[in-house]
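[job 4471] stage=fold_predict status=RUNNING
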Amino acid sequence: MNTVLLTSVSDYTPANISNFIHSVKKSGFNGEKVAFVFTSQSSTIGYLQINGFTVLFPTSEPTDWGYAHIQPSNYPPKNIFCDRFLHYSRYLLDNPQFRYCISTDCRDVVFQLDPSILLAEVLEHSGKDLIVSLEDIEYPLEDWNSTNLQFNFPEFYENLQGQQIANAGVIAGRSDVVRELFQTIYLTSLGGRMHSRVRLTSTDQSAFNILLSQKVWSQRSFFSSNADPWAAQIGSYASKLELYHSRGLPVPRLQDKKIVNTLGTPYAIVHQYDRIPDWNDAINSIYSG
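[job 4471] inference complete, writing structure tokens
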């Protein structure tokens, strides 16, 4: 057991995360599984625990219905999207026994295969420290990413034009390097909050992409596209179907209730499958329950 899986849960019911939980189990992943819980009912906490997850409460207090997130007074305003990376980095600092780390969202992620196997193979063969999952589209062509970057980091908006967009919902690599990356994502995201204080937004993905524009991170990263079997990023593809097809970009597809790449190889990880109704139905038919 040399791989740890990290995820975060807040305001999710067992039904919201059942696909993720069942897929991890079905994939054969046998590493450590850790869920950081912010606000959650007792039923969700129990569901995680009976399915083999260690549950941690970094900034939460018990209530009569579960746990409620309480932002410490010396922290900036709550932004769980970004705060999770601080807690991940602290966990990895306190648990140096893991060689590899995989962090994913949980509500819209499934494991079709054990990703720890492919992770080790890719890092060994590439000589890199991180696997970065690309959306196969560049700034400013995807609306959500472009708007998020411009709103949170306007001073960096022009710098990233033409850069491939990476997704922060699936990050993996050597644990010591991942720990440093998570800490740096958190610190960078704080700068984005200066602009977004008027309304809560996710600054982590834009912060992640700013970091990847720097050689200190890009040179340590294996960039995985939708042509590779690592992780399918469906969100941008679902919002820009015509653009992807007109440009001949590698696109995932549904085959025998599996999400596969252009070679017909199932992805180890699928993210944002719920953006395409038929794919969502297929995933639900396999993993929900």
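[job 4471] summary: The chain has one domain: 3-287.
[job 4471] exit 0
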